[in-house]
Amino acid sequence: MNNRRADPPGPEAPAPAPTASTTPAVHADGLTVRRGTRTVLRHLGFTVPRGRITGLLGPSGCGKSTLMRAIVGTQAKVTGTLEVLGLPAGSAPLRSRIGYVTQAPSVYADLTIRQNLDYFAAILDPGRAAADRRHHNVTRAIADVDLTSHADSLAGNLSGGQRSRVSLAVALLGTPELLVLDEPTVGLDPVLRRDLWALFHRLAADRGATLLVSSHVMDEAERCHRLLLMREGELLADDTPEALRTRTGAETVEEAFLHLVDEATEQRTAGKETVR
Ligand SMILES: Nc1ncnc2c1ncn2[C@@H]1O[C@H](COP(=O)(O)OP(=O)(O)OP(=O)(O)O)[C@@H](O)[C@H]1O
């Protein structure tokens, strides 16, 4: 074994070629999205690091779902650069590497939780030879979202929060590298919200998964490693919760957000006055 420490590269050393582990999970530059006749995302530039939880926060209608749809490749009229796991967003090889949970739970009401997961597992990993692996993955995904005791209940008889956890379990089946979760904690009681955030942190820490989680509840921001703060289709900040609080002299991320909104409004007003 060679224990010699490698010399640090000098200034003239070429930058290492990006590898799977060094490319960010998401890289956007000049990202613009139009829906109908409106521009709903304007020139966004940001990166989402791998293996961390990035919160996408902003008021209702600011464009969080649109950005998530662009990242998973289901949004039309996307221009600018948008790379996901090193590939252009929407590329076919990304399909099995991304788990996406929309705001509306997508489960079959007339199947039990286990039958729902068996169905999606059979699509992801078909064939008789994979039966044991599928059974293991289904049981693990149900346990991940804390629904083991309800595994044989019909999805149609579950509460809204339970149904959205079944959707999350479906997304966890293929052990995706990137999980894109659109408001996963809406309608959950505080205990379930806490448990779900604990699960998100386990997925990042133990499996190295990258999570992009949207919310319009600012107290959830404190649970993220990084934050993308949005307002009216623009990015107000891309930073850690701590750096945001320090930079704005705020005690909470909510206060920091309001400070940044005021700052952006002042800048816009000043810009208009200069033009006049
Ligand atoms: N099909 C559509 N055609 C035109 N505009 C749309 C369409 N769907 C959404 N929009 C607009 O795009 C903007 C962004 O919507 P989006 O759903 O991305 O916001 P959001 O931040 O996810 O909101 P919420 O937190 O309420 O889910 C909104 O102003 C919305 O009115």
Automatic annotation (TrEMBL):
PROSITE patterns associated with the record: ABC_TRANSPORTER_1 (PS00211), ABC_TRANSPORTER_2 (PS50893)
Top-level lineage group: Bacteria
Pfam families cross-referenced by the UniProt entry: ABC_tran
Record-annotated ABC transporter domain positions: 26-257
Record-linked InterPro entries: AAA+_ATPase (IPR003593), ABC_transporter-like_ATP-bd (IPR003439), ABC_transporter-like_CS (IPR017871), P-loop_NTPase (IPR027417)
Keywords tagged on the record: ATP-binding, Nucleotide-binding
Protein name: ABC transporter ATP-binding protein
